[in-house]
Design brief:
The protein has seven helices and five strands; from the N terminus they run βααβαβααβααβ. By secondary structure, the protein is an alpha/beta fold. The longest helix has 16 residues.
Length: about 180
């Protein structure tokens, strides 16, 4: 079984490097163009259904990918972005944010830790692993994509924190 992972297309928040976890941001004009391009290139991938984060930017990306196919889209809260709590809507360049971003167990104030995100993402992937040989397209977010990669690819801490799947891109993984 293959997992195709898409990070939602660009938003104004991602373009301006602003924390956007639980904020339900729409795609930007650039993101809309990325979604159209992604829909065209996704024809080269064989997947049976789409499982998406319920946040608007992921839903719109998922709908663009499903538009030319007759496949269902399902939504799962476990694919949502990390909750950045009090940092939501502020600049990612904040010096005080580094300690939360680069810590696995430390929660953003009133938000989530990477550990909490990993717990929900890994539970989803463990469930998907037990399915019969279906290929699944996941649509998620930056932090979640990093966690999903760690499920399939062994990484050092430095590699983990350095990894960033670009908005509107697709990566292929396989359960072994």
């Amino acid at each position: 079984m293959k997992i195709y992972l898409v990070r939602h297309c660009s938003t104004q928040y991602s373009e301006e490097k602003i924390y956007c976890g639980s904020t339900d941001a729409p795609l930007s004009a650039c993101g809309e163009a990325e979604a159209e391009h992604l829909a065209k290139i996704s024809d080269h991938y064989n997947f049976d259904f789409i499982l998406s984060s319920p946040l608007l930017r992921a839903r719109v990306t998922a709908n663009a990918l499903a538009r030319s196919r007759n496949i269902p889209i399902f939504y799962d809260d476990r694919l949502r972005e990390r909750d950045f709590g009090d940092f939501e809507g502020t600049s990612c360049a904040r010096a005080d944010g580094r300690r939360f971003r680069y810590s696995f167990a430390l929660k953003y104030p009133n938000g989530e830790s990477n550990l909490e995100v990993a717990a929900r993402i890994y539970s989803l992937l463990d469930e998907l692993r037990t399915r019969d040989a279906e290929n699944i397209l996941l649509v998620s977010h930056g932090s979640a994509c990093r966690i999903i990669r760690s499920y399939f690819v062994e990484m050092t801490d430095e590699e983990f924190y350095a990894y960033s799947q670009p908005n509107g891109s697709i990566v292929e993984y396989e359960f072994r």
